[in-house]
Amino acid sequence: MDGIPGPDEFRAKARNWLTGVAKERAAHQEWGRGDDSVAVFENWTEAEERAHTDRIRDWERTRYDQGWGAFGWPSEYGGRELPPYYEQLYRAEEDAFDVPRRTEIFPVTQQLVAPAIRIWGTEEQKRRWLRPMLRTDELACQLFSETEAGSDLAAVRTRAVREGDGWILRGHKIWTSGARVATWGVAVCRTDPEVPKHAGITVFLVRMDAPGVTVRPIRQMTGGASFNEVYLDDVFVPDTDRLGPVGEGWRVTLTVLAAERLDSGGLGLDNADRALDLARHLPRPLTGGEQQQAADLFVRALVQRLIGLRVTSALAAGREPGAEASVGKLHATATMRATTDLVQQLLGPLLAADKGEWGTFAWTEHLLGAPGYRIAGGSDEIQRNILAERVLRLPKERKGAGS
Q1: 87-145 pLDDT, tens per residue?
Q2: Is 161 helix (H, G, I), strand (E, B) or coil?
Q3: Is-catalytic flag, 260?
Q4: Between 323-347 and 269-281, two packed helices, what is the crossing angle to 10 degrees?
Q5: Which residues contact 241 (CB under 8 A, 6 or more apart)?
Q6: What are phi and psi of 38, to 5 degrees?
Q7: What is each CA distance from 40 to 43, 317, 336, 400, in whole angstroms?
Q8: CA-closest candidate to residue 375, choices 333, 340, 336
Q9: Model's pTM, two decimal places?
Q10: Which of 260, 290, 320, 357 is catalytic?
Q11: How many CB atoms lie within 10 A of CB 219?
Q12: In the 8-state DSSP scheme, what is residue 349?
């Protein structure tokens, strides 16, 4: 640990740097003023998404160029070789400042895709992609999910067929966040349909502006479109853009998924805090049942933060969290449901009718969006399977001959 600042010293230096480049955020937003959005998924137009992405990108470049990004990475990639949990220490300080809030594509690029390239990429691929992704000059989305595969990612049907010095990709991906602003897509493809499904997969990085790539936004119940479907129609990908060995794509994919679950433990905490503020500012006394619901949500949010600390502690000890990540994801979705339940109880009809009152109808975006996270990042059922198999050591369920 020689040369590595202690956590308190690091946080003090981070706070000092942030003070020089950003304005401090008010400790508590004045109730009834400012933005009352509690959207789980953004409802931007493409122009709004691009404009916000540009603002975040400018901030991420400032951080990276001044030595406040890529904390755990080697110096050759612009990093500081600090322990992994220093990222969380920095984020705790940054939360107190008025800086652009990262959208999903930024952690996907920096915390999911870049580490996978570091593990599986060739030296040439690392030189091409790592610095640009860590600095956010390049952004990457996940071309993983397919309608036919559901939660069984190994059942993907998008085909990659060898042709000359590259591959031809044909298929359809869905639920892709950030596809409209991404420069690259990480595509999970089937390269050998004759072998067991986990063995016939290969991963490619696909330019999102390549001929044959079509992005179509998916309209959400709330009216916006934060994720998309992506069509790959005879898209040529050079073999130099293949990530990992042919047929080893399942292992590459697991690298990305493990990082995704580690990043999901803080889901919904801001909205839980906002729901508790709603309870405090309700223009009537809370009923006994509402008090109980509010207390339950307070405890759930506290436990979720404690689970996040356990994940951080595992990282600090040099251990990749296993059960903690799945427990954190399950607890986060349960907290989001509890937030919805409390708000429905507190607002009643005000939640269903847009009367222009601050902090009322806006909650419909949480109500309609929160259930999506029971699927995103690994469904609740998948997380329970992981815990059953890896913690409780229960045997996998065997399907009957007729199933």
Answers
A1: 888 988 998 899 998 888 999 999 889 989 999 999 999 999 999 999 999 999 999 99
A2: strand
A3: yes
A4: 30
A5: 204, 205, 206
A6: -125, 30
A7: 9, 32, 10, 40
A8: 333
A9: 0.83
A10: 260
A11: 9
A12: G
